[in-house]
Design a protein that fits this description.
13 strands, single chain, six-stranded parallel β-sheet, cell cycle, alpha/beta, 363 residues, cell division, cell shape, 44% helix, Glyco_trans_28_C, Rossmann fold, transferase, binds uridine-diphosphate-N-acetylglucosamine
């Protein structure tokens, strides 16, 4: 199997979950991950010991510019290079999980008549998958809302493979390894795989409130945003209490998540699949900077099922954040109800569904 997904964690982790499930089911399988030279995948994938090749590719910019000519040239070159890799590796199937790089790889495979499939995580179809939908054999979607946006004869609901991975893990992670209390309710705050500026700024200010709380807080800033937040905290002499810990990134999220009592974060599709797989109550602050405002649509699907609260980025301030956090963290009954509602939305066999469908298109 060749798998390609790039750019951000939301596209990479579902791909890794598929690889893990395939190797569990058929340990003799050979797998190759094709990512981009720029995205998070070039850090994450090789560390997992998975064979990895990178292509140079970039996204379109909205304004007409020379940059977009370069984008087209890089895309064509990446298709050419993908064909060489595919010819060499001879995959039985090629799967794309989104991001520009998967556009080139899956398109190349379809032109070579290799069976192809894509996975769309979001409730609103992304640019790459919209383009690929005409060329692939099967389309798996993570949200039922996305089905009608694709050709009906090849599209099926499968949830998000990462959900199966996090739902099945036996975690013996302990908060004491972070210097926290193993018995206190724990709130995890993070702004998607890259962190989010406004969430970070407001959370940094909210630390003064969190210091006096009966619950504990794990605040994840995103790798590239860590230094500036720590400088802000130092410069403003914000005291960080024993019940608050600040990290740049969590690389073992599947072990951590089962020990989390509530999450404040963005509404990226892969995060929501994890949240509902485990039944974690959440406060969602959708990113307003994504295509067709898809994170708001992702978030509302949880909100209307009583699984989450929502705060728009415009309405986000310390008072709103801390009031909502206290409402959930200090009220076990409300938390348990949200937990149940969240769990009921989870799809916990997604990787199996996607692989079964992949087998059905093998030549
Ligand atoms: C700004 C942007 O384009 N966001 C998109 C991107 O988000 P993004 O990459 O942030 O995706 P998600 O929020 O869906 O997923 C983040 C993933 O990173 C993991 N994680 C996060 C932080 C951390 O410290 N460690 C860690 O492992 C999470 O557990 C999760 O698996 O892809 C998603 C899925 O297509 C889309 O819905 C989002 O709209």
């Amino acid at each position: 199997m060749i798998i390609s997904g790039g750019g951000t964690g939301g596209h990479i982790y579902p791909a890794l979950a598929l690889i893990e499930d395939l190797l569990k089911q058929e340990p003799q399988s050979e797998v190759l991950y094709i990512g981009s030279t720029r995205g998070l995948e070039k850090e994450i994938v090789p560390k997992k010991g998975i064979p990895f090749k990178a292509l140079k590719i970039q996204g379109f910019k909205r304004s007409l510019s020379l940059y977009n000519f370069e984008t087209v040239a890089l895309f064509l070159k990446s298709v050419h290079n993908s064909k060489k890799i595919i010819k060499d590796f001879k995959p039985d199937v090629v799967i794309g999980t989104g991001g520009y790089v998967s556009g080139a790889v899956v398109y190349a495979a379809s032109k070579m008549h290799v069976p192809t499939m894509i996975h769309e995580q979001n409730s609103v179809v992304g640019l790459t998958n919209r383009f690929l939908s005409k060329h692939v054999d099967k389309i798996a979607v993570g949200f039922k809302d996305a089905i009608k946006q694709f050709p009906a004869n090849k599209t099926f609901f499968a949830g998000n493979p990462r959900a199966q991975q996090v739902a099945n893990i036996q975690s013996d992670f302990k908060w004491s390894s972070y210097g926290l209390d193993d018995n206190k309710p724990t709130l995890l705050i993070f702004g998607g795989s890259q962190g989010a500026l406004k969430i970070n700024q407001v959370t940094a200010e909210a630390i003064k409130h969190f210091n006096g709380c009966d619950y504990q807080v794990v605040f994840v800033t995103g790798q590239k945003r860590y230094d500036s937040i720590m400088n802000y905290i130092d410069n403003n002499k914000i005291n960080v209490g024993n019940n608050v810990i600040i990290k740049d990134y969590i690389s073992n999220m599947p072990e951590i998540l089962p020990k989390v009592d509530a999450i404040i974060g963005r509404a990226g599709a892969t995060s929501l699949a994890e949240i509902t797989a485990l039944g974690i109550p959440s406060i969602l602050i959708p990113s307003p900077y994504v295509t067709a405002d898809h994170q708001t649509k992702n978030a509302l699907s949880l909100v209307k099922n009583g699984a989450a609260l929502i705060i728009t980025e415009n309405d986000l301030n310390v008072k709103r954040l801390t009031e909502n956090a206290d409402q959930i963290m200090n009220n076990k009954n409300e938390r348990m109800l949200m937990k149940e509602n969240s769990y009921n939305m989870g799809c916990r066999n997604s990787a199996d569904l996607v692989l079964d469908m992949a087998r059905s298109i093998l030549k």
